Amino acid sequence: MFFKLEAQQIVPAEGYRGDPKQPLGVRIKDLMKRMTLEEKIGQMTQIERKVATADVMKQNFIGSVLSGGGSVPAPKASAQVWTNMVDEMQKAALSTRLGIPMIYGIDAVHGHNNVYGATIFPHNVGLGVTRDPDLVKRIGAATALEVRATGIPYAFAPCIAVCRNPRWGRCYESYSEDYRIVQSMTEIIPGLQGDLPAKSKNGVPYVGGKTKVAACAKHFVGDGGTVNGVDESNTVINSNGLFSIHIPAYYDSLRKGVATVMVSYSSWNGRKMHANRDLITGFLKNKLKFRGFVISDWQGIDRITDPPHANYSYSVQAGISAGIDMIMVPENYREFIDTLTSQVKANIIPMSRIDDAVKRILRVKFVMGLFENPMSDPSLAKQLGSQEHRELAREAVRKSLVLLKNGKTPSQPLLPLPKKAPKILVAGTHADNLGYQCGGWTIEWQGVAGNDLTVGTTILNAIKKTVDPSTQVVYEQNPDANFVKSNDFSYAIVVVGEVPYAEMFGDSSNLTITEPGPSTINNVCATVKCVVVVFSGRPVVMEPYIAKMDALVAAWLPGTEGQGIADALFGDYGFTGKLARTWFKSIDQLPMNFDDSHNDPLFHFGFGLTTKPVKDNY
Predict the structure, then answer these.
(1) Average pLDDT over the chain, rounded to whole?
(2) What are the TM regions of this chain, as residue ranges (predicted)?
């Protein structure tokens, strides 16, 4: 077989790709009848970037590659370094007998968060506060452009979990405890993938070309409902509860043409979701008519057994039989390929199940134009961290803030703060720490502390940019009471919160802010008028400190554009956000949600004070 090499394009001489004008079904059938079992199982295999050499891609007919959290070609890699890497893998895939392009996936869960210099948007917990589906759609479109700027066509987003207990370490990945808000936020899917053409069929995947990416609704299903919020554990709920709380957002996702669905590590009433044929095949595929592909989570089938990988042969059989189409292996690919191959040859898994999986994977690849445009587009590099996207993130930050207290008495509000004051104090561990401001899933899987991780504006720098040039800004991370007393500060801004975490590392039994946050609040707010800004992935313990502070702002995990916080603090814009989570008084009240008959929270779901913008606030 011969290849004709052209700039940015590799065209197999064989004409199996046929005519893009041919009906999709014809193209899929035509290709599948040429495929060997080995080539089919290769399509079902997703491997980690670190093991995806050109030889591995070619010899195993690998269908998909991913970056795990923090898995990058080089530290602070540019868009070009990313595209070179992805294109090299793609060239290897295209050089196989049939030249089927691979699909590269990455967790772009609040912007293109693994990539240096990308715009980092607020995490979902903040976006739910905005109750603004159009904003989230625009964020999806911006994220798609930045992901494509690095040559990647597939994002493992959105997470449409309904977090019902803030102890869960992934609660910040959930838009709300109210499934209706989560449903409305699925508008990010047409942002990522493009608007569905008129008369599209429910459940049929759609991706609108080279500036869009395949999206992934995750984690199917019940990930946000586990007992005590323990990550990956057991959601104990009756069928009615599962279908009325955790499943509704999947209806919306499928209606909007979501290309893929990722299965949850968690169990439903003791049964692992990765082995749940009734819900994956019976419900999602057969009843809802989902026509995209179902993907496992990272080593998701391994974790069907306890301990994980205790009986891999069983895991492969259970996961594939349940209806999972693509397995995120992600490293020990030979074991997966050999195990599945032997099971098919022994008639343990029927060929019809393999064909169903491959048909779905090829459908998504055809629909998104991967066969016509398998290589990266260098003209998109300028989209990464563009000014336009940073302005959008700044707007999202403003709209995601919730003003929980403003003044010791309503008649004496502290906010908006005057820009002109002789001397102001900025304090707290989180005031000048971009990594804390962004949270987990930023550059590294667990996030990174400090200011060297990526490009952005800390709240301290935003304050300095916003106040009058004559205002002296004093920054002291953890001032003692004497320091505060001995200076004549007009007011203080105290920024405290949680440190970054992701997944099970964020599971928390106490939900407290990081030390010395509480003592900073006490030392500062005892002496000077203060607004406390909290960076956290969920409601945290605040009740003991609330009386001491003059104002309180929940800023969630706002990302790189800290200027959006200063915009509201100083009155250039008003506060508009309303809680999309119930804010507890003490953790022994948990779980406590808006739809409970008896709840006595610190701040009710939907609460949020508002301010009006002030012109020339000096």
Answers:
(1) 96
(2) none
